[in-house]
Amino acid sequence: MFGKKKKFKLTAAILLLIFIYALHALYVMFAHTPSLELLSKNTISYSGLRAKVNSGNTRVSLIKVSLGTEENLIYPIYEESSLDKDFKEKFISIPLSPEDEAVKFIKKNKLESLYIYYSINYSNKFFDSDINKKIKISIDFEPPSIKSVKTDSYLYLGGIGYVTYETSSDTYSSYVDTGLDNKFYPITRINKDSISNLVYFTCGNKPCKNGKIKIIAEDLSGNSLVLFKKVKTLRNKKWKTSDIVIDLDFVRNKYNEIFNTNIETVSVDNFLELNLELRKKNNLEISSQTKKITKEPITLGKFFQLRNSKVFSRFSDKRNYFFDDMESSLMSTYHWGYDLSSIENAKVYASSEGVVSFLSNDGLGIYGKTIVINHGLGFYSLYSHLSEISVRVGDTVSSKVVIGKTGQSGLAFGDHLHFGSYIQGVPFDSNEIWDKKYFNQKVLSVYKNFINSKKINSNSEGRLKAE
Fold first, then answer.
1. Model confidence over 193-248: pLDDT tens digits?
2. In this structure, are strands 171-177 and 212-219 parallel, antiparallel, or unpaired?
3. Both 356 and 389 in a single domain?
4. Distance from C-alpha of 407 to C-alpha of 367, rounded to nearest angstrom
5. Do 91 and 57 lie in a common domain?
6. What are phi and psi of 21, to 5 degrees?
């Protein structure tokens, strides 16, 4: 009797283990399977197809993708077997062109939809298998349109330009490329059958690339259209170049102040860490803090230079740095602003109406104590080397509000204000906003005409937005 009971318990334990194993196998079979996800909004265009394959905790050995109708397979467009068997996610990009057989077939038959057929061979801990599925996609080979391009077709070296244009309503994103790393996005107005765009831009301290700007419009399918517009750069100024001999005592003191250290001697590496590497990092931070276009338009007025101040360094001045015994410069920098001197610890007023969008009381590296003010439409002003800051982020300020005092925090040679002006993350010559007549002509009147154009009125269904 005892032996039968023991045998029964053993049998039950074995059956339980088999049941658990079977459940686990079923779980692996259904849960551990790869999948393909389209990243191109289930649409095919000349930008091709972008997809992501998730391994589903399996080892994938083959991926095949084809285009086809519901009844017939047309065209294989992707196959890969040399795979990292342990990948979790794999991104696939498949370009297409008007010369591809699949594209010719689609156009010849005027197809409005198509199917993506895909096969994935894989293995898990129990078996080898494959998946064969299809996804219905729409077809879009028509890029957005760009029309009604208007601009005065010039800007001064280091200055501001503008362009207005209309794009078709299927436009997902549009922007202006002047040849810099930055893109300049528009203030837009959505109409019933089109989108009106206004872009302020700069070409930096050089002429626009090839004397042109590129206006680019993209849709959700990945189609894009590029339109070139000539823009003349008027060379009305020359940048000053200065040779600076490095004072090691000054560098040591500033290095200890900025990095909060207490080293007794400095080397070339210390200087480069301070004036090259940290400068790049600080400029990237400023660029990121001045990129955004304010969603709600802000009324921009006159900009003022620091009261009772004298300019002793200008925008885009070039500085070559030497040690005493060096024949060639160790490095060179461009000065992205104006250095303004007044009395020591002079009161600093906001240059114009705006909202404090960033500040650093602890010091932004070589810039020291710094304030950034957002003036709307992508325009910002920067105040650095301050000794005191008397505002907070979010404060609304005007040219009558004291925001701080001049100083020599950061990599400053003496008490002064470093003033910079930025449009969507790119510095430009502040003289263009201090000139009331020119700023009104180039910025304010253009904006007023844009929002008051006859095509767009208060009864329209349009709305202002920022990209």
1. 999 999 999 999 999 999 999 999 999 888 899 999 999 999 888 889 999 998 89
2. antiparallel
3. yes
4. 11
5. yes
6. -65, -45
Whole-model pTM?
Answer: 0.81
Answer whether residue 286 is part of any domain: yes
The tokens of 366 are what? Answer: 């070589």
438 occurs within a structural domain: no
Cα–Cα distance measured from residue 363 to residue 353, given in angstroms and rounded to the nearest whole number: 24
> Are both 181 and 309 inside the same structural domain?
no
Say if residue 464's pLDDT is above 60: no
Sign of CA dihedral 333, 338, 342, 346: negative
Q: Report the relative pairing of strands 232-234 and 154-156 from DSSP bridges.
A: parallel
Instruction: Write down the pLDDT at residue 222.
Output: 82
Domain residues for the domain of 398 are: 241-428
Q: Which CATH number do you get for residue 317?
A: 2.70.70.10
Specify the pairing of strand 379-389 against strand 347-349. Answer: unpaired
Mean pLDDT score, 90-105: 86
Q: What tokens does 32 get? A: 């551990």
- Domain total of the chain: 3
Task: Supply angle C-alpha 423, 357, 385, rounded to 5.
Answer: 85
Residue 20: how many CB atoms within 10 A of its CB?
10
CA distance 435 to 180: 25
In this structure, what is the dihedral angle of CA atoms 354, 359, 365, 367, given to the nearest 10 degrees?
30
- At 178, the amino acid letter reads T
| C-alpha 253 chain-centroid distance | 36
Decide which of 241 and 126 is more confident.
241
Q: Count the Cβ atoms, other than its own, within 10 Å of residue 232.
A: 14
**Within-domain flag for 443:** no
Task: Say how far apart CA 372 and CA 86 lie, in whole Å.
Answer: 47
CA-to-CA distance for 197 and 456, rounded, in angstroms?
12
**Cα–Cα distance list, 91 to 50, 58, 114, 397 (Å):** 7, 16, 21, 48
Asked whether residue 85 falls in the same domain as residue 36, the answer is yes
* Segment 351-368 mean pLDDT: 96
How far is residue 429's CA from residue 325's CA, in Å, rounded to a whole number? Answer: 35
Cα distances (angstroms) measured from residue 393 to each of 192, 372, 421 = 38, 9, 18
Residue 315 backbone dihedrals phi, psi, to 5 degrees = -60, 135
Please tell me whether residues 133 and 168 are part of one structural domain: no
Higher pLDDT, 410 or 28: 410
Q: Which of 225, 68, 226, 52 is nearest to 139 (CA)?
A: 68
| The pLDDT of residue 457 is above 50 | no
Distance (Å, whole) CA 215 – CA 201: 11
